[in-house]
Amino acid sequence: MPSTERERGAESPSSTLAVEEGVATIRPIRIWIHVMALGVVAGVVAWLAGEACLNVVQPRRHAIVDRGITLNVSDRRGEANATAVNAGLAFILLGGSLGAALGAAGGRIRGSNRGAGSAAAVGLGAGALGAALVSLAILPAYDTYRLSHPDEASRDLILPLLVHVGVWATAGAAGGLALGVGLGLGDRRAILNVVLGGLIGAAVGATVFELVGAFAFPTAETARYVSRTGPTRLLARLLVCVCAAGGVAAAAVDALGRRSDVAA
């Protein structure tokens, strides 16, 4: 038994080195195809899931009597709270979908089904949790501003952009983390690079969506947490997920290229 343990211990470094060399020799086109394809899948899944629970939370209503007619009405605060909760749920679904998809992509690129499953679980948790925490931090504060300054808020396009960037960039960062785990990048610098790639990519996607939405779809109210039409909601998810995937893929290719240079 002692000799067997020594043999295992002796084999461990070489096995690790073999894995690292295998990762370093992955072709960039393989990374781009897997990551971009699953980025599209994440966007579609997030949209379908979001459409299924678009108005799952309804504002509280109370009865009033007007000219002898009883009406069930809600106040502005209740409507704002319900809208924020529904939006937060949509953002959680987006973060979880993007994180899971890019984690699975990382494992599949490396040729490991187990790694794909583990990284997808990491991405699902990180994306959903990150989106939830940022939503809790940002949405109530923005609602307070919007209700207390309705005229200014109705003309402001910068704050809605910052809200979307804040939440969606967090989802992109989680996707980058998940891909790094799936690929087995290991060192902190490489992980940080793919996280930043996802964050920046998602922020770019959010910005493009706001600009396109304001000019091409003015009636869809794309500055809202969740826009009013299905096609614009799909556009938002696809832009965020595809741009995040592009940023992550570029960072991963760069990280593995550096590793190949070091190995050479």
What does this structure look like?
The chain crosses the membrane at residues 31-50, 84-107, 119-142, 162-183, 190-215, 235-256. Keywords: Membrane, Transmembrane, Transmembrane helix. The structure is a single chain. The protein has one domain (27-263). By secondary structure, the protein is mostly helical. It starts with a helix and ends with a helix. The chain has a two-stranded antiparallel ribbon. Helices cover 81% and strands 4% of the residues. The protein has helices at residues 2-24, 28-52, 76-110, 113-148, 150-155, 158-183, 188-216, 230-263, and strands at 62-66, 69-73. β1 (62-66) and β2 form a beta hairpin. α6 (158-183) runs antiparallel to α7 and α7 runs antiparallel to α8. It is built from 8 helices and 2 strands.
Name a few traits of the molecule:
about 5% strand, transmembrane, 2 strands, disordered N terminus, 8 helices, about 260 residues, two-stranded antiparallel ribbon, about 80% helix, mainly alpha
Give a brief description.
The chain has 264 residues and is mostly helical. Helix 3 runs antiparallel to helix 4. The protein has a two-stranded antiparallel ribbon with strand order 1-2.
Q: Give the end-to-end Cα distance, rounded to a whole number of Å.
A: 37 Å
| Average residue-wise pLDDT | 86
Q: Name the overall outline.
A: elongated
Structural class comes to mainly alpha
Could you describe the largest sheet, including whether it forms a barrel?
2 strands, antiparallel
Residue fraction in strands:
under 5%
Number of helices, where a helix is a run of at least 4 consecutive DSSP H or I residues: 8
Overall tally of structural domains? 1
Widest sheet, order of strands? 1-2
Unreliable stretches, pLDDT < 50, 5 or more residues?
Answer: 1-21
Helix and strand string, N-terminal first? HHEEHHHHHH
> Which quaternary structure do these chains form?
single chain
Give the proportion of residues in helices.
Answer: over 70%
How much is the radius of gyration in Å? 22 Å
- Total strand count, please? 2
